[in-house]
Structure formats: C-alpha cells, structure tokens
Recover the amino acids of this structure.
C-alpha cells in the first residue's frame, strides 16, 4: 500500500458535496483498502465561507476562489457538485487542462457539453466520470457501459426524475392537484423554488440524452428529445387512469429500431402490473432491454445527499484505481453510429384520449366515425355524463397502436368536430400491447 | 485501432457456450468498436465432436482435448462454460499458469475455489472474471465491486435461483404440488434431471457465498451458509401464505451487523408488497442495502443461454480493455475483514409456524402458554378445523421477532406438548417488521 494521500478538491459544498465529505470521512477504512491510499479533501469551494455549517465540517478548508482548487498542483482530482452549466463548464475545462481528473454529478453540464468534455479529458489523459448525473444511487452508467457492454441495447425506459415521481405518486394516491402537491414537495425539499426543470420534463430529458448517447453509441442532444412535462396532468386524468387499470408516470423512453432512434419524455400511462408502475415517491428505476439479455431493471434512490455521493465517491475510487494502474483517460468512446431519428410517421403508440362532447343524439357516432376514418381503433372506451355540465358528456378511450402523426391529425380533426367541445387531454400508453 | 484479432478458447459448448458464440458472431461490430480488436473463437472443447449441432456453428473448430486450448499459445483468453468443479479447477489453473485470462460462469467452482483461483490469477497478472456465475444477465458482481464501491453494504437479499423461483411461482399461482411442478420444470429445461443442487438450495447458497464474500470483504465459504431447500414446501403452506398476505420465495440473505455476519438460504415468507415478492417465474433479483445508498434493486433473467452469455462476453470486453491498457490481473482483493458469524442466539427473525393440534378443550391455552413461557408473541394467528381429520385442528401463526435459538427451543417444546400432534411446518418471515 502506498502511504501517500490523494488530495481532492470539492467544487461545491451543498447537499451532495456534504454527502461526499461524509462518505469520505466515514468509509475511509474500506476506501483506502480498495485503493491503497487515503483520500483527503484538500479544499472546498463555497459561495460564502461564513455561512453556518454542521460542526463536523469545521476541519474542512473552505475557499470562495475556484483558483485555490484548480491551480493547486497537489490536488489530483476535482469533484464538481456545484451545478450550473456555463461557469461550471469553464472550471471543468480548466481542471482538465491542469491534468486533474474530474468527477461530476451535473446532468445539465453533461447533457449539454458531455461529448466535448469527454473528448478533452481523453486528450488530457484524464478521467471524467459522471455516474451520479443520472439516477443518483443507481449505477446505471456503469451498467450500460460495462455490465451490458456485450449486448446491443434496444430500449431504455425509466423514471429518472424523483421530484415528478414523488408528485405523481401523491397526486394519484390522494386525488390531489398539481399545485397542492408541488407546494408540499417544495416544503419537503423534493422540488426547487423554481420547479421548471423538473416539472416540465427538462431534467429527465437531459438524463435520457445522456443514457441514450451511451446506450446506442450515437450522439443524442437535448434538442433531439421530445419533451412534455406534468403541469397539465389533472386529478380527472388520474382518476380515469385508476378506473382503467393504469398508473401515470413521467417516463423517459429511448428506443432504437433498425438504426432509427426515438427519445422522448412525457407523462405516460402504464398498466398497473408494469414494473415501472410500482416505483413510488422519489425513487428512480431504469428498465434496459437488450437483444441478448432481454429485460433487466435497476431500482434505487434517484437523488439525495448520500445516495448521490455514493455514486460520486465510487467514481473517485475508479479514478484512483486507474491512477494506480496509470490508465486514466480512456472513458471517452467516439460514437459508433450517426443518429437518425424517427419521424412521427414512424413512431407507433397507444394513446389515452379524453374528450368533452355535446351530450346529444349523433355525437357518439360522429366521434367514432372520425376515428374509423383515421383507421384508429379502440381497446377501451367509456362515456360518462360530465359533472356540473348539463350539456356536456365525457368520452374516455384508449386506442390500439397507431402512428403519432395520425393521432395528431385525429386530435386536430376532433377539435374541429361540431359534436366535440374539446380534447380535454391525451397521453401515450406504454406496455399495453 | 489495432488490426490484430484476439483468439479465445471456449471450454464447453452447451447452452451458455453456444450463446457466447452467438453474441460474438452477431455483435462483432459493436464489440470491436469498444476494444479495437476482432474477437475470434479459435477452438471449442466438447465432449463429442460428432454430436449434431446447429449449422451456424459449423465454422467453429472443435476439439475433445483440452490441451488444444490450454497449450495453444495464440489463445489469450479462455472462457470456461463447461461446469463441474475438480476437473474444471485443474483446467482453469493450467490456463492461468499459461498466462491466459479466464472468464467463468461457474458458481460451483467460484464458491469452492474462488479465493485461491483469484489469488493465482493475481500472481500471474491475469484477469479472472465471473460476472455470469451469479444472477445471469444482472451485472451484480460489477455493481457491488464498482458501482457501490464507496458504500458500506449491510445486507444483500435476493432470489438467485431461477429454477426454484419458477417452481414456487407455479406452485403458488395454481395450487400445484412440488412433484408436479418439478416434472414440468424438467420438461421445460428449467430444472436438471437431478434437481438436487437447485431444489435443496445449494446453488443459491453458493451464489450467496460469492456475493457476501465480495460485499463484506470477508471470506464466506459454502459451509458458512445455513441452507434449507424447497422440497418440504406444501400446497397447504402456500395456501396459508396467500391467506395471510405473504408470498413464499427461496430467499438468500447475507447480513452484516456490527462486524458479525449471517448468510442463509431458505424458503421465506415476504409481505406481498415486498419488491422481491413480485419477482416471478425464472427471473432473479437482488436487493442491496448500503449505509449511504439505502435500498437498491437489480432485476433480470437469472439464467438462459443469451443472458448468461451477455455477462460472459461483457467480462471478455473488460479483459480486452485491460489488455489494451496492460493492466490485467488486478481483480483480486485480499479480504479486509476476518469473518465472524452470528450464532442462533444473535439472529432475530419473525416466524410462520403451522401446528396440528388435538381439537379439545385446553389445547389453545396450552399452546399459547408455551409461547408465553418462551417470551414469543404473535402478530397473526388462525385456528381452523383440519380437513379429513376429525380429531385434529390446525393453528397457523406468525410470531413477532425472536431469536432463532429461542424459536428452535420452542419448536422442540411444541412437538413434546401432549396437545400438539406435530409441528407441520415453519418458515422465516422477512420484511414484515
């Protein structure tokens, strides 16, 4: 065992940064057993040195100047847990130029600039690891790039945003509204003061871009992901889901058929028996389908101080093993394929559609005729009077698989039909056919 | 990219061996993209060269003499998928002495001789990888040793034998007997002609020895695992499970509290909502608890030609990446801890107990008094008349947590009680308290 310590710098000392410090403190014995060196946090970058912190952190040297970390030659690895994109990218680039290995938990950064940063790390013979950027405590990056490396992956489907999963779980279980549950999630610290990135699906889309780039060895940018968030999900939608045997989840899907890719994030109905339908609260889970392995699923905490820090420090262990063997800097792989994305003509899906219609003779026939004209058939259909609306009724149906393009045409035509007041909502249905 | 091929030798061309050949054939493009070299199976060891095989295997050079592989200097890695222990151990040792890397799917070999073989590989600067030996397509070895390397693992709990999970699923769903379902499993190829290793829990115990050695960095031998198989599980037991809201599974548990370890495999009752209760048929799943990460679960096919071969070939990719970087032979880690095992006094569990008692005044009081004397209390209790037995009744109960030693004393005392005909069955209950 080398007696030498490894000095690391922490960029950020928030929730995850504190978790990293805690794991390094409490698991030092098992960590140094694996890597033969003691880990020491030399310095941590914070916004305000004077902020009151937990007393066990008092030994940690703090700085408000990133240069104290980036330019310190004794620091061999930098852990980036400060978040943000542009400023952070500059720091990570400078760290790599200084030949420091980088571990990041930052999915925003990796989704936007991952490919460039990984190439730069490769050129600098530095490791750039980012296990913590997707699905916190679940080692899904490593599973895709190493555990299933021999397989051709065809589909990744997951719940990769804990905030929205918590919210949908509470909305479904207790028939509560979006606004009500959002407030609670903010109070509990599951949602940010500005919840946009989570509730509009952007956070999940970034993670799906990272996972699909890796799984399909094809570049996938955030712009390539079709995204719909959960703001418009109503208690009425959720009540009908329940009645029809479905659970609504914000699902990320990345799929590859015959060289063509589709990546999307949207609220999706799953049959209650589907493995992802039973992933509740802030938990994450990722289903991976491979040609050879079939279906596998990986489940765990998607966020939180210690779970995310576990992923960060496990990456640090990998960096240190590579240092021991002098083989850092191999994490980047040029994509094998160019990405071709499916058009809406080529994407097939079942849909849940909820309509407000005028409650009079001929309505039902007019609606069903329009479906027939578009060659869309039903798996399930309900017609009910609409509460507090004497003139209107509600038709709720689940279609058989059809192309997204046809469904969109159909939705426009439905909105124009005189028998229809409006299309109240529609969602994709997965795992039903 | 190096233009050179890597030549590998296959020891065995059964179910898994054929899967390995298939993956190497069909995924060659993505494989060589990752490792910069083409994989060629130079030769495969078989028992009978003349046996009729699928036509796509006809290009493969076969031999009945292991020396043609072990002594061929052009073969750099050996894939052992022949099974068996002693003869195979000699071949693996000889391959390592010839400086060939070894990938094995053999849990029997690894449970019995893993520690010695891993040390030998380390001395020879060779890799010895064995991802496929536990839970087929689930990369659980890599997850424990790398993905969660920063954490202190406290508990591994899993369904790691597909045969018995298939059998218990069918027995539970259709109220069928052990013998009936075993016959079907044998016809479908899920169970061997001699099903002993599976149904008596030995296969699962070997896998738990492998997982717990790794997870706790402590040597665990097969003899250290307490094992009970599923032969004595009756349709009556399963019917009561159902009635009480439990699912019976053959569960492996490895647990470490304050330095003390318990490893066991036995049919166990789980509350229906428990994640492992919903793992059906031949699927495997492993729950991993870590101090920092909390609870994670990994689910997938536990056996089968292609899933297991995925793990084997992913290991081969890891070997080849290491070859590229010239860092083979680091897979062995000296255990950090000596193993101290819990005694039955120190192990706490809930129990399901089913009694046949004489249906007369005072019986119930005598039985419950005996429980009270042993300081064991109930969570649930049923008394029912016993079918086709006018003199006897059945008492079924679930205790609160108690030490295993006390429960065993209580079971002996119950058998001696004049009010009791016999203890018909008893099982541990997990995840209830």
């Amino acid at each position: 065992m080398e007696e030498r310590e490894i000095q690391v710098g922490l960029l950020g000392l928030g929730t995850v940064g504190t978790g990293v410090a805690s794991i390094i403190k409490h698991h030092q014995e098992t960590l140094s057993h694996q890597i033969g060196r003691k880990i020491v946090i030399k310095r941590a970058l914070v916004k305000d040195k004077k902020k009151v912190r937990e007393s066990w952190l008092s030994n940690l040297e703090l700085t408000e100047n990133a240069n104290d970390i980036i330019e310190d030659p004794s620091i061999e690895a930098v852990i980036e847990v400060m978040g943000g994109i542009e400023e952070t990218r500059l720091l990570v680039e400078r760290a790599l130029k200084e030949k420091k290995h980088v571990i990041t938990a930052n999915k925003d950064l990796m989704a936007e600039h991952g490919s460039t940063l990984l190439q730069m790390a490769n050129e600098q013979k530095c490791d750039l690891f980012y296990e913590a950027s997707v699905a916190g405590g679940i080692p899904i990056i490593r599973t895709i790039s190493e555990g299933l490396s021999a397989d051709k992956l065809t589909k990744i489907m997951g719940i990769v945003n804990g905030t929205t999963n918590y919210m949908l779980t509470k909305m479904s279980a207790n028939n509560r509204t979006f606004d009500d549950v959002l407030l609670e999630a903010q109070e509990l610290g599951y949602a940010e003061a500005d919840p946009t990135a989570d509730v509009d699906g952007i956070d999940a889309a970034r993670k799906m871009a990272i996972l699909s780039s890796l799984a399909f060895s094809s570049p996938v940018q955030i712009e390539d992901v079709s995204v719909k968030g959960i703001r418009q999900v109503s208690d009425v939608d959720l009540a009908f889901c329940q009645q029809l045997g479905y659970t609504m989840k914000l699902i990320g899907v990345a799929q590859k058929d015959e060289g063509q890719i589709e990546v999307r994030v949207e609220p999706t109905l799953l049959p209650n028996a589907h493995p992802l339908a039973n992933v509740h609260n802030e938990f994450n889970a990722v289903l991976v389908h491979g040609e050879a392995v079939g279906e596998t699923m990986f489940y765990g905490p998607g966020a939180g101080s210690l779970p995310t820090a576990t992923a960060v420090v496990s990456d640090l262990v990998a960096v240190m093993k590579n240092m021991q063997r002098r083989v850092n800097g191999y994490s980047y792989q040029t994509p094998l394929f160019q990405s071709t994305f499916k058009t809406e003509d080529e994407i097939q899906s079942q849909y849940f559609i909820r309509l407000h219609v005028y409650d009079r003779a001929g309505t039902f026939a007019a609606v069903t005729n329009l479906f027939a004209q578009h060659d869309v058939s039903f798996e399930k259909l309900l017609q009910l009077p609409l509460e507090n609306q004497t003139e209107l009724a509600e038709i709720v149906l689940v279609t058989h698989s059809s192309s997204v393009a046809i469904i969109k045409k159909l939705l426009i035509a439905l909105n124009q039909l005189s028998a229809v007041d409006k299309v109240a909502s529609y969602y994709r249905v997965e795992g039903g056919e």
Remarks:
- Chain A touches chain B through 57 residues (CB under 8 Å).
